[in-house]
Design goal:
Shape: elongated
Largest sheet: 7 strands, mixed
Strand content: 35-45%
Structural class: alpha+beta
Radius of gyration: 26 Å
Number of helices: 3
Helix content: 10-25%
Number of strands: 10
Order of helices and strands: EHEEEEEEEEEHH
């Protein structure tokens, strides 16, 4: 949803409250599509913060289905997101060192794109590793069975390749 900020930018005492739906059906990140299990509205308060600046304070909750990094089962991962940003619509570069001052992709002219804002916040909150449980056993490297639900009888002992020369010597001496 696009929110026009021209009235807030022109009026120093203006504050607007918005509640917007997240229109994304799924979240695309690093070439993967993650479906939403649940998502709330984006609650957003926009306040004039000076000459051509707007303070955006808001929050939303989203739950994504992310695959476990070991067994690939879907895990419901909750993202309670809060943000407090100062959006600068001025052309001068002299205020770049001010804290909380951001120039983001969700600003288009004098409009704020809430879907891009939600996307950017979810990207920053994505976990490095997702596990269905702390002691997830993962997949069997031989047959691919989920070790959390199935007990397979595969031989998963992998010989150390650095010991191949010594193993060949022992195998030759056994043949004699």
């Amino acid at each position: 949803m696009l929110i026009n900020l021209s009235e807030i930018l022109s009026n120093q005492a203006k504050t607007e409250h918005h509640e917007c739906e997240i229109s994304m059906e799924d979240f695309e990140f690093n070439g993967m599509h993650y479906p939403f299990a649940d998502k709330s509205q984006v609650v957003l308060d926009l306040t004039s913060a000076g000459k051509k600046k707007v303070r955006a304070v808001g929050h939303f909750d989203a739950t994504l289905l992310l695959p476990c990094d070991r067994c690939l089962e879907d895990v419901k991962w909750e993202f309670p997101i809060s943000f407090n940003k100062v959006l600068d619509f001025s052309e001068d570069e002299e205020d770049d060192n001010e804290e909380n001052l951001t120039e983001m992709s969700f600003m288009e002219g004098s409009e704020l794109d809430t879907d891009v804002l939600v996307y950017d916040e979810l990207v920053m909150a994505m976990p490095m590793k997702v596990l269905c449980k702390p002691d997830c056993k993962g997949l069997c490297p031989v047959c691919g069975a989920n070790r959390n639900t199935t007990k397979c009888e595969c031989d998963t002992k992998v010989p150390d390749p650095r010991m191949a020369a010594i193993r060949d010597i022992f195998n030759k001496s056994k043949e004699v």
